[in-house]
Write a structure and sequence with these properties.
The protein has about 260 residues and is of the alpha+beta class. The protein is about 35% helix and about 35% strand. The strands form two sheets. A four-stranded antiparallel beta sheet has the order 3-4-2-5. A three-stranded antiparallel beta sheet has the order 1-7-6, with helices on one face.
Length: about 260
């Protein structure tokens, strides 16, 4: 720097003063930033629920005729030896499956669901059990996608050697249409209920906030069928009626109300 010593001293003091002032301004701005943010806190949870709301549930139901059935058929045999019991059982089961195929039941619709071999004893009081022989049982679960074939299929298998009919259930190949119809009914029922509560409390429905679904189509539980002592003597197709299935959908909704 040029000039007299006195001027240089004055310039140095002035520069130091400006630098200090800039540093202080930066520190003050940094310290003030969090305070500025702290002045706008997020909305509390309570403020989000100041509106009057209704939490309601409803269901919709539709009835429809089934278009498929599942039935459990089986063969049970007894013989003095395990090998003889299994052999007799296998022969009758082979005839039964052949009868199912002839009745129009595809192989993919026939599934083995149980195979058992158990010793059979005679019990006499005060004497040890005496082995009488062995009992073999074999069950298959079949799916019938044409209900017009159900009675004749059961009849054919009985004539071919089946001596156990354990249960039958009816269902739907595709429940989508029935479920959607039930959903429409459920939504209408839920909206009607919301309107009723709103008017009863001096409000009106502003909007539907949330909607959730639970339940839906589920296959009908098997209905027991009584086994006949002489099923092989039955004549004509077994009468079977599918009736109707109930398809139900449950929903829950949260409504916001206004005055």
């Amino acid at each position: 720097m040029h000039g007299t010593p006195g001027k240089r001293v004055i310039l140095e003091i002035l520069m130091k003063t400006l630098v200090r002032a800039g540093v202080m301004a930066l520190l003050l701005a940094t310290a003030a930033a969090p305070a500025a943010f702290a002045q706008t806190p997020p909305p509390s949870a309570d403020s989000m629920f100041k509106a009057t709301t209704l939490n309601l549930s409803a269901y919709g139901e539709t009835r429809i005729a089934p278009d498929k059935a599942t039935i459990n058929l089986g063969v049970q045999t007894e013989a003095p030896t395990a090998a003889a019991a299994l052999s007799a059982n296998s022969a009758q089961m082979t005839s039964m499956i052949a009868a199912l195929r002839k009745a129009g039941i595809a192989d993919k619709e026939i599934q083995t669901s149980g195979l058992n071999l158990n010793p059979q004893y005679d019990y006499v009081q005060n004497e040890p059990p005496k082995l009488r022989g062995y009992q073999a049982s074999n069950q298959v679960t079949i799916t019938v996608n044409d209900l017009s074939k159900l009675g004749s299929a059961v009849d054919a298998t009985v004539k071919a050697g089946a001596n156990q009919v354990n249960g039958i259930s009816f269902g739907l190949k595709d429940p989508t249409t029935a479920e959607n119809a039930a959903r429409h009914e459920a939504v209408k029922a839920l909206a009607a209920k919301a309107d009723l509560y709103a008017k009863a409390t001096g409000h009106r429905v502003s909007r539907l906030v949330t909607l959730s679904e639970g339940g839906g189509y589920s296959p009908q539980p098997p209905m027991p069928m009584m086994a006949y002592a002489r099923m092989d003597k039955m004549e004509g197709a077994v009468p079977v009626s599918g009736g109707e299935l109930s398809v139900r959908v449950d929903i829950t909704g949260l409504y916001e109300l206004t005055k």
